[in-house]
Structures are given as C-alpha cells and as structure tokens.
Amino acid sequence: MMMSNQSKAGMMHRNANKENTFLFLTDINSILVSGEDTNGEFCVVHCSVNENDGPPLHVHRDEDESFYVLDGELEMTLGNETLLVKSGDYVFAPRGIPHTFKVRSKKAHFLVTAYPAGFDSFVKELGVPYVEGMEAHIEPPTPESIQKLMQVSKKYNITYPGL
Q1: Which Gene3D superfamilies does the UniProt entry name for this protein (predicted)?
Q2: In Å, what is the CA distance from 98 to each residue of 43, 46, 61, 81, 113?
Q3: Under 8 Å CB-to-CB from 21, ≥6 apart: which residues?
Q4: Domain ranges in the chain?
Q5: 89 FRET partner, CA 20 to 30 A, in 12, 66, 105, 142?
Q6: pTM of the model
Q7: Beta bridge mates, 72
C-alpha cells in the first residue's frame, strides 16, 4: 500500500517509501508524484545523488524538466552554459536542450519535475526497487547496461549526444 493520502478535493500527501523508491543508475530516486496521479501532466521525483555522480549529457525530446536543489551543490550544464547550482536554486531545462549535472558536494538532494510526465516511468523501467543500504555500482558501466540504457531511453525519446 502506497503511503499517500488523496482527498476528494485532490489534495495529495506522499513521502519516499519502499513502494516508490528506486536505485536508478547511481541515484536513489523516489517518485513523489507520478503521471498516473496527474493524468500525465507532470511528475515529481526526489533524487539523492552522491559526489561526482550524474547522468551523461542527454536530451529529452518530449518533456521539459525543472530542478530544485534542497541541499548540496550541482555543476549543471545546460546547452552551452555551465552553472554552479546550490541549495535553494531552481533551474529550468527546456526540452530539446542537451543537459547534465555532476554533484560537487558529498551528496545532493533535489526535486526534478518533468512536464509532461514520463520521467517517472523511465525511472521505474530502468531502475530497480530500492532496499535500504543498497549502493550503486561504482565501476564503469557494462556494455549490457549501456545497451539497456539506450533501449529504454529510445522508448522515452531521450538521446545522448556523444554516445
């Protein structure tokens, strides 16, 4: 049973829990609001990422993303710009613009909101249910894991310039 509460007025209360949390690449991601909750309009994912981790440069063709840093620091590349993004900062990453980030603090916690939803389904499909104490594999990705990333990404219209 998901730890959520939704009233007739549409109010929702949700936290990170074992039903909505996934080990996704090197991140621990909790889907706080899914596309199923919003008729596909948007999703909200809480991300917990370790120092020097982050995705390869990528482009979302179908959705815009916003990032709100709760704590920690990210070095974020958006198009030709590189920004140091700190606690309390918000960044909007429009669809079609290559972007990536690397965590520059020991750990960073941030919210990703994607419009329309889809990133939540990508996390569920590519990730594995998170169990307390699980750690991401730090060694370089295997050819099989890269192939799976590319296959699942194609389904969600995400591309990787340079890969």
Answers
A1: Jelly Rolls
A2: 20, 21, 10, 10, 17
A3: 28, 29, 30, 31, 129, 130
A4: 18-131+139-159
A5: 12
A6: 0.89
A7: none
Angle at the Cα of 112 (from 108 to 116), degrees rounded to 5?
Answer: 170
Q: Given this model, what pLDDT does residue 70 score?
A: 98
**CATH code of the domain made up of 18-131+139-159:** 2.60.120.10
Q: The tokens of 121 are what?
A: 């389904």
| pLDDT tens-digit series, residues 64-93 | 999 999 999 999 999 999 999 999 999 999
Of the candidates 21, 30, 45, which has an alpha carbon nearest to the alpha carbon of residue 112?
Answer: 45
In tens, the pLDDT along 106-123 reads 999 999 999 999 999 999
Question: CB 138: neighbour CB atoms within 10 A?
Answer: 9
